[in-house]
Backbone:
């Protein structure tokens, strides 16, 4: 992979501080067009900053919405790699380099409380502390999502490692972490290994190295604890799955009776049942809020779904897909609905509204599962998504052409 000097204006091939050259990939089209930064983690790692910081910085500078979930760093809109590299230079100038000695080995330190909160760059090279300009919007984001403290390990490596955990947390709305560990149970298509990998940071970190070795869990007590927590959460989830008294069943029954309830009423029902933020809410919503007219109805529920599908969490997306799958497969009109390409229409609306991510839809669309309906039905529902999946492939091809610049 091509690397560049962290200070790109330093024309010295022996300059010690390098980072991977930032890459971009434009996905989707129309209102749903977005720029994915596939190597954001590696770039951020080299800068010893959480990958969310530069991504959010791009968003601030471009006035664009950003999303980070499942290790995907996305800026809405279509942006060239060169533009983002220039912005990255600015980010490095303002948030990484020591203004005194221009060394990039700095750590962000937050001091003060309330209105007097401030962020400093603590330079490992010259020892000086320099203030960050608090007028930049990114500072608010940093204060809300502070860099995790080193736990005895030195250098930026650890910072990046913890930052990955911090990444998805940004949009977390007060429930269990939205890491996809619990999806390990999904349909057998994913091995438990994926659960483990998701429970700890991925990509080029100390922990990642540890995971690659023969005994990842024992080798890493933190990871082991993290995993057992996830597994615990998973068991709880499974237990109440078919419980007739569960709040999810109650929500489902309520939705069946109140399909025309406005978004606010749906949300207060979810609050009343104390299941705010739970991914299984989406299963009920997908199955019971809509009727056979879902292709028409989905557009009106986009805002509600944007609120309920947390942080583009894979789990939430999969539950929503599962609910919709049930609706379409179990409807007495199922054959007609599927023949009319209803699945494609619904997926398109959800994708364009950034509720579903490309990778999640692809994975769903190409893996028949008997988790929600029987296999035969599951196959038919996916067949009805063909048009959308084909469209995704074409959109991808055309964005690759654009990448060639
Ligand atoms: Zn310095």
Residues:
């Amino acid at each position: 992979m091509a690397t560049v000097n962290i200070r790109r204006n330093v024309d010295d091939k022996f300059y010690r501080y390098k980072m991977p050259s930032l890459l971009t990939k434009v996905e989707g089209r129309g209102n749903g067009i977005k720029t994915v930064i596939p190597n954001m983690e590696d770039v951020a790692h080299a800068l010893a900053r959480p990958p969310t910081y530069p991504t959010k910085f791009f968003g601030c500078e471009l006035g664009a919405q950003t999303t980070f979930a499942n290790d995907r760093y996305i800026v809405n809109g279509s942006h060239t790699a060169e533009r983002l590299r220039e912005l990255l230079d600015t980010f490095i100038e303002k948030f990484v380099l020591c203004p005194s000695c221009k060394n990039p080995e700095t750590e962000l330190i937050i001091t003060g409380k309330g209105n007097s909160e401030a962020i400093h760059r603590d330079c490992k090279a010259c020892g000086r502390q320099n203030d960050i300009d608090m007028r930049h919007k990114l500072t608010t984001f940093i204060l809300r999502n502070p860099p995790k403290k080193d736990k005895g390990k030195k250098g930026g490596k650890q910072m990046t490692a913890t930052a990955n955990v911090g990444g998805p947390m940004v949009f977390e709305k007060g429930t269990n972490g939205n890491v996809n560990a619990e999806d390990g149970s999904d349909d057998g298509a994913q091995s438990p290994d994926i659960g483990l990998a998701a429970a700890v940071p991925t990509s080029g970190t100390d922990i990642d190295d540890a995971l690659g070795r023969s005994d990842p869990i024992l080798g890493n007590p933190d990871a082991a604890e993290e995993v057992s927590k996830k597994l615990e959460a998973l068991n709880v989830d499974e237990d109440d799955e078919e419980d007739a008294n569960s709040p999810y069943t109650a929500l489902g029954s309520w939705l069946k009776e109140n399909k025309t309830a406005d978004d606010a009423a749906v949300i207060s029902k979810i609050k009343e049942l104390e299941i705010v933020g739970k991914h299984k809410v989406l299963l009920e919503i997908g199955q019971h809020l809509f009727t056979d007219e879902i292709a028409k109805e989905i557009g009106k529920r986009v805002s509600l779904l944007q609120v309920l599908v947390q942080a583009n969490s894979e789990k939430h997306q999969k539950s929503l897909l599962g609910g919709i799958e049930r609706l379409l497969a179990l409807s007495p009109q199922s054959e007609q609905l599927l023949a009319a390409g209803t699945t494609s229409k619904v997926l398109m609306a959800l994708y364009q509204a950034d509720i579903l991510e490309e990778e999640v839809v692809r994975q769903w669309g190409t893996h028949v599962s008997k988790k929600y309906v029987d296999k035969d039905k599951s196959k038919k529902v996916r067949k009805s998504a063909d048009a959308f999946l084909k469209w995704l492939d074409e959109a991808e091809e055309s964005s690759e052409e654009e990448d060639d610049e």
User: Anything to note?
Assistant: Residues 221-239 form the longest helix (19 residues). DSSP finds 20 helices and nine strands in the chain. The pocket of zinc ion is lined by residues 98, 100-101, 103, 123, 125-126, 128 (CB under 6 Å).
